[in-house]
């Protein structure tokens, strides 16, 4: 559906379309992990191709996220900063018709690549798997997620958060698929995974903002840099505390 939607049509809101496209690619990659052993290598190759297609949209998506997160931080701290002024406009990027056209072209390129993968998948004709087999494969993803849980979330590195978020996304989409199509999943767990995914995403968004601020730090007043850095760390600390119980409840404490 995503491939057809953006291959031939022009989205009115490219930023929303980029987010939707990347989310659907993540879902497809998660579900390809449920492929039967006879198609394991083909599914792995398709996952790699889909990842490459999604990377086309990484830069604009990261720019949207950084701009939104930084704007929220500035509002929380009641700072008198215009995001269109240097050096913050370097982080948030330009806007306007030209940029939207560029994003539409990127969406089209991504959609073409997704379409090619979809055509390959359409040629597969595996026998239908019983739900129990699908559950067994989904349990492998669950074990991977447990291994991705840091021993201490409070001191987790960006790499730990990234790995955990990736594992949670896979489990969330697989659980949703099992719920909707086979009624063998757990809707409460699916809901908990989705909430956890969002919070982990917010934590990682703050890491992204911190990285971008560090890149332009020579152009930011020292006091302002301290305020923003402190606000970033405070938000991350709060979010990590909020997710600790959820992670322990879902995967167990100290699973890494």
Q: Which SSEs are present, and which pair or pack?
A:
Layout: H1 2-7, H2 14-32, H3 40-55, H4 58-76, H5 88-92, H6 97-122, H7 131-148, H8 158-182, H9 187-215, H10 222-251
Structure overview:
- By secondary structure, this protein is an all-alpha fold.
- Helices cover 75% and strands 0% of the residues.
- The protein has helices spanning 2-7, 14-32, 40-55, 58-76, 88-92, 97-122, 131-148, 158-182, 187-215, 222-251.
- It is globular.
- The mean pLDDT is 90.
As a percent range, the share of helical residues equals: over 70%
Which quaternary structure do these chains form? single chain
Task: Report how far apart the termini are.
Answer: 37 Å
Strand content: under 5%
Basic shape: globular
Structural class: mainly alpha
Output mean pLDDT.
Answer: 90
Secondary-structure element pattern, one letter each: HHHHHHHHHH
Tally of DSSP β-strands: 0
The Rg value, from CA coordinates, equals 20 Å
- The low-pLDDT segments are none
Instruction: Give the biggest sheet.
Output: none
Number of separate helices: 10
Based on the model shown, name its key terms:
mainly alpha, 256 residues, 10 helices
Brief account:
With 256 residues, the chain is mainly α. 75% of the residues lie in helices and 0% in strands.
């Amino acid at each position: 559906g995503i491939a057809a939607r953006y291959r031939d049509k022009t989205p009115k809101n490219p930023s929303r379309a980029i987010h939707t496209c990347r989310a659907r690619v993540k879902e497809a990659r998660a579900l390809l992990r449920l492929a039967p052993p006879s198609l394991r290598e083909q599914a792995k190759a398709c996952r790699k191709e889909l990842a490459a297609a999604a990377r086309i949209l990484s830069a604009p998506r990261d720019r949207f996220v950084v701009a939104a997160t930084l704007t929220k931080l500035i509002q929380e701290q009641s700072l008198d900063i215009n995001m269109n002024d240097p050096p913050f406009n370097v982080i948030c990027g330009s806007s306007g018709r030209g940029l939207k056209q560029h994003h539409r072209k990127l969406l089209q390129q991504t959609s073409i690549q997704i379409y090619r993968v979809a055509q390959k998948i359409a040629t597969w004709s595996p026998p239908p798997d019983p739900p129990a087999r699908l559950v067994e494969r989904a349990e492998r993803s669950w074990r991977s997620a447990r291994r991705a849980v840091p021993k201490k979330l409070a001191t987790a590195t960006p790499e730990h958060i990234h790995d955990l978020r990736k594992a949670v996304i896979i489990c969330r989409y697989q659980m949703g698929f099992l719920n909707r199509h086979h009624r063998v999943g757990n809707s409460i767990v699916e809901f908990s995974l989705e909430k956890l995914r969002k919070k982990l995403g917010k934590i990682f968004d703050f890491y992204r903002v911190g990285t971008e601020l560090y890149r332009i730090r020579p152009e930011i007043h020292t006091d302002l840099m301290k305020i923003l850095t402190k606000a970033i760390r405070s938000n991350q600390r709060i979010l990590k505390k909020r997710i600790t119980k959820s992670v322990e409840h879902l995967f167990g404490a100290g699973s890494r």
